[in-house]
Specification:
The complex is a heterodimer of chains A (about 325) and B (about 260).
Chain A lengths: L3 H14 L4 E5 L8 H6 L4 E3 L4 H13 L3 E7 L7 H9 L6 E5 L17 H5 L6 E3 L7 H10 L4 E5 L5 H9 L2 H4 L7 E5 L6 E7 L3 H13 L5 E6 L7 H7 L3 E7 L8 H10 L6 E4 L12 H10 L1 H13 L2
Parallel strand pairs in A: 1-2, 1-3, 3-4, 4-6, 5-6, 8-9, 8-10, 10-11
Antiparallel strand pairs in A: 7-9
Helix pairs in contact in A: 1-6, 3-4, 9-13
Chain B lengths: L3 H27 L4 H16 L11 E4 L9 H6 L39 H11 L5 E6 L6 H12 L5 E7 L8 H4 L5 H8 L2 E6 L3 H8 L7 E6 L23 H11 L1
Parallel strand pairs in B: 1-2, 2-3, 3-5, 4-5
Classes of the chains: A alpha/beta (about 325), B alpha/beta (about 260).
């Protein structure tokens, strides 16, 4: 399986060959998929250097001249150009796509400077910005088509790598599912078929793996669970969610983010407009993680082990 | 006769006096905005927009305000050029008016959105990169140069050789709370820009002959013009006094004196 960023840049390249208005700006980021951008499309690709503020400002200027602009940077640095995204893009109506690579603890053990664990919270505060968090690289080609066909200010949160289970779950949905991102922004997993659902778990991106494992574990312990991966974290549709939580007693959100204002909060907000339902938000511990370790081990040690998540969900369900 | 261009320069000074008068009227009437910062940049704008020898075409070229708090200086000029009715000046910063404290692209003749320093230059660089046939002018405040994003953009403009973009620095030597050279040194600015790859000149930003020559010079490199100006220019008691950055004369005496000096 190709990395999400290579899948993205390759698909975008294919489109750019026939559409000279597509411009890719790299903020000093490399990728194997960038090589042919540099050699074959020199007028549609440039490096902005390690200059996030200028990259976004230039991108906004290009967008104002009807260019379809994609700015590729490490996800952690969107905080560094937050003002430019707010001012030069959101406020000014300049629609660009920011490709943020390496969300959550994806760069572990690089340390918290490289590991954005609050980016959903601060980015979703921007008006008119859409956040998209694909779980699998299989979703990327249709996502790129979606972005080109329906341009808006978008922050795409790419995973550096994901557990195999995630790609398998998405692959099992079939080619029709992965070929239309617009109509398929949710990935479903039911741990037990044809029985009432006690718990619906909402997750996004990398957490789909742990969410599914938790759901399977809980379902084996008489707490029937389903998982819904939410790719589009913003503009959550109340009608969709009304259907998604039908026949569910409890909702749990799981995110590789600290929970203040993040993914779980977004779900909580949309549910609050539908009906009163108990919601448990589970995220990474409220701390910047400096310890060495792999992404998996750091998640285990900071509140997101399958054991910890499962126990919290069980305790939550028993409290009613 | 050879002195026709010279007569035009004198005419520009008269135009500038009228522009300063209009700005001072709508600023003192509302008490909103940054009068001193607008007054320092007036001659730069008059030279660009109203000098018959200017290469800047207000209808097809684009001016981007970095120091958008001084941007209302362009309103009387745009009104004169029929971008909007003169009566809009009377409605500056009122609910029924289209003119705001910071110019933005909803106002005819204005580009981008105003109010956040250090960003217009990068935005303009994007516009200039996409359209090499559009002349882009960026007016930066000198204190705006403290924003690191400006220097990121300067690297970009020089590297991509965006000769259709020129930068004018309104060098009034002041920030909000004092002189730049006392607070945090900016000089030597000429050497900084030159070392970045810009064709750099420094002029008297109130001298129309020098403005004409600098703003319309041709060059093989992107241009920076450092225009030495006086903050509060035209109102004697405001000139060169940083205290007036956010203060607009309020007393009838002060207002009358200001209007008298500009009439």
């Amino acid at each position: 399986m190709k990395a999400q960023r290579d899948e993205f840049l390759d698909k975008l390249f294919e489109e750019a060959v026939n559409d000279s208005s597509i411009i890719l700006i790299s903020v000093d980021m490399g990728a194997p998929a960038l090589d042919r951008w540099r050699s074959d499309l020199p007028n549609q690709f440039f490096s902005a250097g390690i200059s996030e503020q200028n990259a976004i400002n230039v991108a906004s200027g290009l967008a104002s001249q009807n260019k379809k602009v994609f700015v590729y940077m490490m996800a952690c640095w969107v905080a560094r150009c937050f003002e430019q995204i707010r001012y030069s893009c959101a406020m000014s109506g300049n629609k660009i796509t920011i490709i943020g690579n390496g969300v959550g603890l994806g760069y572990a053990p690089a340390g918290p400077a490289h590991e954005p664990t609050e980016d959903i919270a601060y980015m979703r505060s921007l008006l008119g910005l859409e956040i998209i968090s694909p779980a699998s690289a299989l979703q990327i080609p249709s996502l790129v088509e979606y972005l080109l066909n329906e341009p808006r200010l978008t922050y795409v949160r790419l995973e550096r790598n994901v557990p195999e289970l995630i790609d398998k779950i998405v692959a099992d949905k079939g080619p029709l599912f992965v070929s239309n991102f617009r109509t398929n922004p949710y990935v479903f997993h039911k741990s037990i078929e044809s029985r009432k659902i006690d718990v619906t778990i909402f997750s996004s991106g990398y957490m789909l793996d742990r969410s599914v494992k938790c759901a399977d574990k809980l379902s084996g312990e008489n707490l029937n669970a389903q998982v819904i991966d939410v790719c589009k974290v913003t503009s959550l549709n109340t009608e969709d969610f009304e259907n998604l939580i039908v026949d569910t007693d409890y909702v749990v959100t799981i995110e590789e983010q600290t929970i203040a204002g993040g993914f779980g909060s977004a779900i909580l907000e949309v549910l609050s407009e539908i009906k009163l339902i108990p919601v448990l938000r589970i995220g990474i511990d409220d701390r910047y993680i400096f310890e060495n370790g792999t992404r998996e081990s750091l998640l285990n040690e900071n509140g997101l082990s399958i054991e910890t998540i499962s126990n919290r969900i069980k305790a939550f369900a028993q409290s009613f | 006769m050879g002195n026709a261009p010279e007569n035009a320069l004198v005419k520009l000074e008269t135009e500038a006096r009228q522009v300063r008068l209009e700005i001072t009227k709508f600023k003192t009437r509302t008490g909103i905005g940054h009068l001193a910062s607008a007054l320092s940049v007036v001659d730069i704008l008059v030279s660009l927009y109203l000098d018959p020898e200017s290469s800047f075409d207000p209808n097809s070229d684009k001016l981007f305000f970095g120091k958008a708090h001084g941007g209302p200086a362009v309103y009387p000029i745009l009104a004169k050029l029929n971008f909007f009715p003169l009566a809009e000046l009377d409605r500056y910063c009122t609910p029924n008016g289209i003119l705001r404290l910071h110019p933005d692209s909803t106002i005819p003749g204005c580009e981008f959105v105003g109010g956040s320093l250090g960003n217009a230059i990068g935005f303009a660089a994007g516009v200039a990169w996409a359209n090499r046939n559009i002349n882009c002018v960026v007016v930066l405040g000198d204190a705006e140069l403290y924003e690191g994003s400006v220097w990121e953009s300067l690297l970009f403009i020089a590297h991509h050789d965006l000769i259709n973009l020129q930068i004018i620095i309104d060098r009034n030597e002041m920030g909000t709370i004092g002189k730049t050279e006392d607070l945090l040194k900016l000089e030597p600015l000429d050497e900084k820009f030159t070392s970045f790859g810009f064709d750099t000149v420094r002029i008297d930003g109130h001298n129309y002959k020098q403005l004409r020559s600098a703003l319309n010079r041709s060059s093989k490199s992107p241009k920076v013009t450092i225009a030495n100006t006086i903050k509060g220019k035209g109102i004697s008691y405001m000139e060169g006094r940083y205290e007036y950055h956010v203060i607009i004369p309020k007393s009838q005496n002060d207002i009358s004196k200001a209007l008298e000096e500009l009439t």
